[in-house]
Amino acid sequence: MEDEYRSYYNAPLSQLFQSEEAYLGTIIGVNEKNSHIIVKFKKNFCPRLKFPMNFVVLRSKVWQELGSDINNWSCSCREFFETKEFHTVYSEIKPLYFLKREDKNYDYVGCGSVNIELFNSICKALNSGMTIWIVMYKPFPPTQYMLNLRNYSEWNTDDDSLLLKPTVQYDNWKPEELSTNDNIAQSLD
To answer: Residue 118: what are its φ and ψ, rounded to 5°?
Structure first.
């Protein structure tokens, strides 16, 4: 799994768009009642429904540096995310449902689980007439969290909450094999 994410992280963004592991879309509206955003994707190039994703809002610098054709974006995924001038902070997002629209060249997807601060910024930007482009991608594993947890455990060896204490005395433990004919509930008493 680690190798899979390493190759994803080092792959050129253009390759991730072509292999449908990252998606470019435009936010065209919001449903303020449900805190959903409506994203327009090129037909048949949209994420699967009900799978958690992450997304970032693109800044104008990305178009200046990488160009308008995403098939020519040769920077790696890592370089893209490390260049903060290209995008805003990320947010989780979950594509939930398709919407029918007149334009058959695009898929319209309602998405939820967006960070509330980013959602409010999107609402303001749409109300001011801005076009909002996003990149949606599969979430990265929580490696930084795991490293922090490991470091905390190593540095705080006296913390009793980190010690696992077995509740069973294995010296006196004599498991009893149950057959399918036994009344298991009665055996557990």
So the answer is: -70, -40
Closest of 119, 115, 138, 114 to residue 52, by C-alpha: 138
- The C-alpha torsion from 120 through 123 and 129 to 135, rounded to 10°, is 80
Per-residue pLDDT tens for 167-187?
A: 667 777 777 776 776 666 666
Helix (H) or strand (E) holding 53: strand 53-57
What is the CA angle 126-132-138, rounded to 5? 130
Tell me the CA distances in angstroms from 15 to 23, 24, 41, 44, one per residue in order.
11, 12, 17, 16
**CA proximity to 95, closest of 44, 167, 36:** 36
Three state DSSP letters for 107-143: EEEEEECCCHHHHHHHHHHHHCCCCEEEEEECCCCCH
Contact (CB, 8 A) for 47 and 95:
yes
Instruction: Tell me the two tokens of residue 11.
Output: 């792959």
Amino acid, single-letter form, for residue 88? T
In this prediction the pTM is 0.75
- What average pLDDT is seen over the chain? 89
